[in-house]
Amino acid sequence: MKRDQTKSQFVAVASIAAELSAVMDVAKEISLAAANAKAIAFRAGEKAKGFQPITDFINELAKDTIELVTAINEHALSLYQLTVNEYRMTDAYDKFASVELLAEGAAYKESLQQPLNNCQQNMLDCRRDFKVNVTQLLDQLNEVMRPARAARVIAANSRIEASQAGEYLQSLQAVAESVDNAAQVIHENVQRCRSALSVVDLVE
Amino acid sequence: MTNIYEGSYQWVMFGRDENKPDLIIDTNQYMVRTADRCLLIDPGGVELFAPMLAAVLHYAPVDQITDLFASHQDPDIISSLGLWDQALPNAKLHASALWEGFLRHFGCESIEYVAVGDNGGMIDLGGVQLQIIPAHYMHSAANFNIYDPQAKILMSGDIGAALEEPGAPIFVDNFDAHVEKMRFFHQRWMPSNQAKRVWIDRVRELDIDILAPQHGRMFKGDDVGRFLDWFESLQVGIAV
Do you find a cis peptide bond into B94, omega within 30 degrees of 0? Predict the structure, then answer.
């Protein structure tokens, strides 16, 4: 692990955490929008009959997103821990290599070989675990895109149903808008998570 | 590397590293080497890890470096802990119980943390017994010295420290001239006259041939008493 690589890895993991925190906020907004829509649909009665089941869908979507983001956050945390461990191992390995040079002629220089080997092995283990975790995280990010895509379809349906709701048209259209915007924001944030991960060099 | 005690075991002082980066403070590290164990006292900061371990390898293999001691929590004392943690397969760190949660930030997973209570304790190197002497607030809130009653050496941490030019001799050779190199350091870094008096009373009870601080020169013979007298009359904690 080179120093630049370490930096980009730390930055990538930190960026993911920041983006996910924003996704979580948006998911909570959707949940609020669902509750709001339910209240309006209830007041609108027959006029918003088609809208009522949609509010349940919106709520489900928000719940799914929150659960997924919680799981991804835990994953991002373990990626951070792995990055810290790898950084420590790499630093130790570099320092041990310096000791090897400086200890030229020392009676017990050879005793350094075992720690050096252990450190190298630990470094490789960290790298392998990091790669596995990144792949899993990318899969999870794909998953979180699904409810976001579904939310856009629901938003389109909501607009149609809202158009039948007479004087409640504007309120329900606002709900549809907010779900649509939220889905868009989630989509963009998740894309940014993916790009953040793409700068991490997984080849070495 | 200078041997400062040779008996059935050794005390070695490491310091005056010519390759040390300019902006970090020069430090003295100490090692007690027995037949099959090795204690490193205030092993130093991250920057000094490589030269320090390389120097120790002249005396002991890695697996015989069994004990580390940190007089307090400062980075020049022990920020290398995370690296020792990777290097030493079976070692203990003796340090204040108060600093445990802080020192572990440097990385301490394979090394066993031996938490020393406020009253001090003992490090047993298999036949060589060293006393951990309380020196709280001198300068750190939880602070210890190491006393070896057989070698009559007191490793005093920052007490007796002086800021020296590179390549300074390892022992004080003119006490009066040396005083000015210590004055501000002690007045500014030592916070409490009361703690100072308690420490001096405690240390006067010990039979000391060498007082070995973590920075600057060591004191030998009569200069140990001269230092205690000088320090006793010095007002410390001047920044308030």
Answer: no
Taking the C-alpha atoms of residue A121 and residue B15, their distance in angstroms, rounded to an integer, is 33
Cβ distance A151 to A183 under 8 Å? Answer: yes
Q: Encode pLDDT of A98-124 as tens digits.
A: 999 999 999 999 999 999 999 999 989
What are the chain B neighbours of A112 within 8 Å (beta carbons)?
Answer: 53, 57, 62, 87
* List of residues 6+ apart from B180 with CB closer than 8 A: none
Tokens of B41: 């006292």
List chain A residues with CB under 8 Å of B89.
Answer: 114-115
Q: Do A114 and B49 touch (CB under 8 A)?
A: no
| pLDDT tens figures, A121-147 | 998 998 899 888 888 888 888 888 887
What distance in Å separates the CA atoms of residue A124 and residue A8, rounded to the nearest whole number? 18
Report chain B residues whose CB lies below 8 A from the CB of A96. Answer: 86-87
Strand partners, B211: B154, B219
Measured in angstroms, the CA of B226 and the nearest CA of chain A are apart by: 38
- This prediction has a pTM of 0.83
Whether B54 sits inside 8 A of A107 (CB atoms) is: no
